[in-house]
Amino acid sequence: MSDIPWERVLVSPATSIIEAMRLLDETALQIIIVVSDERQLLGTVTDGDIRRAILKGSNLKEPIDTVMNRRPTAFKADESRQDMLTAMRLLGFARVPIVDAQYRVVGLQILDKLLKPASKDNPVVLMAGGLGSRLAPLTQNCPKPLLPIGNQPVLQTILENFISFGFHRFYISVNYKAEMIKNYFGDGSRWEVAIDYIHEDKRMGTAGALSLLPERPQEPVFVMNGDILTKVNFLQLLDFHTEHRAIATMCAYRYELQIPYGVLKVDRYRLQEITEKPTQSFFVNAGIYVLDPQAFDHIPANTFFDMPSLFEKVIAAGQESAVFPIREYWLDIGKMSDFELAESEYTKIFGKKDA
Questions:
Q1: Does residue 347 contact residue 329 with C-beta atoms inside 8 Å?
Q2: Closest-CA residue to 326 (of 39, 25, 19, 105)
Q3: Structural domain count of the chain
Q4: Which ranges of 62-152 does DSSP label H, i.e. alpha helix?
Q5: Do 131 and 82 fall within a single domain?
Q6: What does DSSP say about strands 124-127 and 221-225: parallel, antiparallel, or unpaired?
Q7: CA angle centred on 32, ends 351 and 75, rounded to 5°
Q8: pLDDT-based confidence at 234, cuts 50/70/90?
Q9: Omega within 30 of 0 (cis) for the link into 137
Q10: Residue range 285-289: average pLDDT?
């Protein structure tokens, strides 16, 4: 069995959802195993379970047993390794608890190929053609995706994040100061990946630029704005998209807004209630998408077309669209204060030191 310390993901049913989230991120085992005081298997929790709870508005301080799978698959300890791996491939499971005759957890079986991300053929389109006018004067002589944060350009951090998950086919959509971006990234051989370029001669919008791809994709396509710093797990995003059989999946980030006044509830002229400085919470578009090849049927050729319009087309056609809630770090570098925040947080989040 694997040398990964699987015992770290054994938790009691009283463990909070937010603590389970922390364990998922720290251990990278992609599973939480809920056990009794005697270590008997009670349930399992995956990233997908937690994200569904977030979408439902669950309180993250609630106990994990409110979201766990109460009928998990488990292997007996005396089953052969080959039988386990064969069953996992047939069932599509990446990790399965191992139990003894008393149903106590004694191990965790993990598909070996998941210890190192397998090569993923899904195309990744990075949007890098914007003017970045709100970051002037920094963008006067440098396109926004090449602005250095930490020890490298923003777009390089995005590229290397995708590479770390096994992706190797990239398109970069360019317009403003395109040659600077092309000269920096080249054909991708520096990273042992393939990079091609989409040239926008006019503003095409986030979705419109996809009509310039040289061929219709055969696999789900990632599309991401080139000015976002995030620690999203792209494999979990792809699994979520596939699991929900979505034609288009949009990542969403929870944005909170505090009203700086007491808010009144009024019935005609009667004051019914005063809520002092309430906080409102919204899911906002996070600028990261996964699109099935069918979604490209809705994209007009050589025309400005933004991503929200594409999702509206998918919904109007009665096709499945999904929302993937981001619980990891996410920052849209849209204005100077965002850029300054990114610079201050970069080393802590990405573990790289300034050059």
A1: no
A2: 25
A3: 2
A4: 81-91
A5: no
A6: parallel
A7: 130
A8: very high
A9: yes
A10: 96
Query: What is the rounded average pLDDT for all residues in the chain?
Result: 89
Does residue 89 lie in a domain region?
Answer: yes
DSSP state string for 72-88: ---EETTS-HHHHHHHH
pLDDT of 78 > 90? The answer is: no
355 lies in some domain: no
Query: Do residues 157 and 164 make contact, with C-beta atoms less than 8 angstroms apart?
Result: no
Q: 91 burial class (0-12, 13-18, 19+ CB within 10 angstroms)?
A: exposed
Residues 287 and 166 in one domain: yes
Cβ–Cβ < 8 Å for 49, 68: yes
Domain hosting 33: range is 6-114
Both tokens assigned to 49: 């379970």
- CA separation (Å) from 270 to 169, 261, 265? 62, 19, 9
- CA atoms within 13 A of residue 109's CA, in its CB half-sphere: 22
Q: Identify whether residues 141 and 184 lie together within a single domain.
A: yes
The sign of the torsion formed by the CA atoms of 183, 352, 340, 161 equals positive
* Per-residue confidence band for 115, with pLDDT thresholds at 50, 70 and 90: very low
The phi, psi pair for 51, rounded to 5°, reads -65, -35
Other residues' Cβ atoms within 10 Å of the Cβ of residue 201: 8
Residue 62 resides in a domain: yes
b/e map 137-173, b = 16+ CB within 10 Å: eebeebbbbbbebbebbbbbbbbebbbebebbbbbbb
Same domain, 154 and 50: no
